[in-house]
Amino acid sequence: MTECTYCKAETQLYDNGVPTCLKCFEVRRPKPPNRDHILTNLVGRIAKATAQVSAANQTFSDIISKFPTGLPHPDGVQRIKKASMELDVARKEMMKAHTRLNDFIERGIVPDDLKRSG
User: Fold this and answer.
1) pLDDT tens by residue, 61-110
2) What are phi and psi of 72, to 5 degrees?
3) pTM for the full model?
4) Using CA atoms, how far apart are residues 96 and 28, in angstroms rounded to an integer?
5) What share of the chain is helix, strand, coil (3-state, %, to 5)?
6) Helix or strand or coil: residue 67?
7) How far apart are CA 25 and CA 5, in angstroms?
8) What percent of the chain has pLDDT above 70?
9) Whole-angstrom Cα distance, residue 109 to residue 83?
10) Is it the case that residue 114 has pLDDT exceeding 90?
11) CA 3, chain centre distance (Å)
């Protein structure tokens, strides 16, 4: 028998090649995240993404409204393009957040970044 790396108790159990007694294995093993934690996290990300879309949409609308004739100045064109790209990115992030939540609810798929806990 060998000694547990952590508490020096005798053991025959190995965790990834490291001698570990059952007690230390149970204490050090990462706990899987629970369903409520995952749902809270995913819904929170949707709320954050939705707020970003709302802010980007407001910025875009504010820029467009400054050109009543519909013909912006040359620097205005760049501002419109930038605001439009930011709105597009925010919408894609929101869709990604919705897809992740939907995948979890309908198929039980836990996103990789939420699998590790501890």
Assistant:
1) 998 888 777 666 777 888 889 999 999 999 999 999 999 999 999 999 98
2) -75, 160
3) 0.66
4) 33
5) 65, 5, 30
6) coil
7) 10
8) 92
9) 34
10) no
11) 40
